[in-house]
Amino acid sequence: MSLRTLPLLFLNLGGEMLYILDQRLRAQSIPGEKARKVMNDIITTMFNEKFMEELFKPQELYTRKALRAVYERLAHASIMRLNPPSMDKLYDLMTMAFKYQVLLCPRPKDILLITFNHLDAIKDFIQDSPRILNQVDETFRQIIDTYGPLSAGEFQLIRQTLLIFFQDIHIRVSIFLKDKVQNSNGHFVLPTSGRVPWGTEVPGIIRHFNSKGDEIKRTEFTHGGNYVLPQREGSFDLYGDRFLKLGTNMYSVTRPVETHPSGAAKTLASHIKEKAAPNPLAKEELNFLARLMGGLEIKKPPGSEAGFRLNLFTTDEEEEYAALMHPEELACQVISIQADQDQQRNEELARIMGEFDVAEQPSQSTTKGEDLLAMMDEL
Questions:
Q1: Which helix (H) or strand (E) holds 141?
Q2: CA distances from 208 to 146, 199, 214, 216, 222 (A)
Q3: Are 106 and 197 in contact (CB under 8 A)?
Q4: pLDDT in tens, 179-208
């Protein structure tokens, strides 16, 4: 498992989150000034310097629940609010979109091009905010410095780590279903034809070599596909044509997007089983994340700047229905951020986690998201 995977996972999922929020802000006709403030506030928080420093430290991936907690906090970094069903839908769309991109990337290194497509789009969102733009450019350079020297084998390990993270997540998304790239069971349909990866050849020839490495024979075969060579390699520089389209905004053409869990009964049963026999360490991790996040108060907008609720469903009725259909057994997925109201419980959790102070202890004292959430507390 690669310890360099987290920044790519976080930034790409964050890019998908911004695509979705931008689409819904426009769909709900949110005034331009408010919409820009939401995007700017989220991007500013996301690319905070200390936040990025913590993110780029070599570390294992967070659990899915811990990562979702980070994005829930990030989504509420401005005057916008999401009800739980809309937050669920947002996270499902983010997750499935990036999973699809990782599955389809022609070669492991192209995960960088997917990341750059997301960052290029994020820069377009904030092109009128030079200060925030500099933050994104700095992260861009950090990615180039960190991942540029990696070998093909290291990128393959990163891709494999991402696929393991997304394993068993099969949420059906209407856009994918309509485009016939996803089956009704939530599995993606991978193409058997098309553009081959840069630096490779169209299938159809088997080369035979002797013990000295000399080619001694060629055998042709019928591959049965329709393959083409890429015209050029995408740019891995700060500015340039990425050529690869994966990671670009698939919501640029407005159309409703729905999500449906695949095999709902089976999924529910698995969650009930998980709740019945929880992992004590995972439980304490979630509880401690709740304590860390409890210290961060969501700032209320000034009197003249009213907040608003964003609905990721087509109508309020659909969101209410989703809330009613949301089984109580799945409530364990949501972290209740109320730790600041129960000091005694906080002290007990601190004792369990090793009696450390987030603000003073070195980074090695915390694991799997605690440092990153602590940074968010300071933003």
A1: helix 130-147
A2: 38, 20, 8, 6, 17
A3: yes
A4: 899 999 999 998 888 888 998 889 999 999
